[in-house]
Hints:
17 helices, 2 strands, 60% helix, 1% strand, two-stranded antiparallel ribbon, mainly alpha
Amino acid sequence: MTTTLSTPVSPHRHAHATVRSMMLQVLYALLPGIAVYVWFFGWGVVVHALLAASVALAAEAAMLRARGRALRPFITDGSAVLTGVLLALALPPLAPWWVTVVGTAFAIVIAKQLYGGLGYNPFNPAMVGYVVLLVSFPREMTVWPAAYVVSGHHVGMMDSLRIVFLGQPGTAGLDAFSGATPLDLMKTQLGLDHTVSEIRSSPVFGDFGGKGWEWLANAFFLGGLYLLYRRVISWHIPVGMLGSLIVISVMFYAVDAGVYPTPMFHVFSGGAMLGAFFIATDPVSAATTPRGRLLYGAGIGLLTYVIRTWGGYPDGVAFAVLLMNLAAPTIDHYTQPRVLGHAKE
């Protein structure tokens, strides 16, 4: 039997969407967040972003050559650079240089290229690299500088270079301006039976989340709106993730406000906003159907709250994304929309 495929008559409109253009749009959208990051937490993020991008390109080229694939189309598509930058944004800005090298190489070589490269990886490569680092090097992954509005010390470029590459604190001792993140502090103090109101009296907290972290979340939110406007991503995953995170945190906050932080604390602290717009929306490892994207995002939000509240890590976005990456094919299978002209099965 011969099947004839009917094609609509011309004219056709080309979408002009390429992998390179999409990756560049995402990188552009990250610029406000990077600028705010530098303002509040110093230049370490730029150092790590440049280092991660360089390592990502080198690892990508080495793997492509080993697989006998052409270098130019894949090196220039921007996907490796974006993976490196996203990983750098998740790392402590004063982490040793080798942490970035190990995490980026693992993300590109193991989580991406060994599965076949872009379009074949079942897991988000940046989050795989981050989780490997978090599990393997917990000490190096917890040295976060306090926002300069709290510590009174802005980590300049030279200080950042000395700390990252030489382990030297530069003009000020590292212990003088580093500490736990707001999420880590909240989780630790709750474990010591302090109430949320007592913990929030610390100077590291602002109106909703941590000082500096709130502005960082706002910057990533603006970048996410840009991606929505440019139709690089759809609204389903961010709405599903942030919506479910807010709903479950409202429920527990209503039960006991002394033990469970406010919903806005969860939204404006840690990697929630970055995860919702830039990580969970990865077109390869995420769900693809409209209803599936909502369920996929909602699952990430719920798992993030569960890990933050009862798990062993203060921020659960990376783990939640990887767990839902596992579920994405099943979600897509059961949420396929009805084909026009066919009865719903």
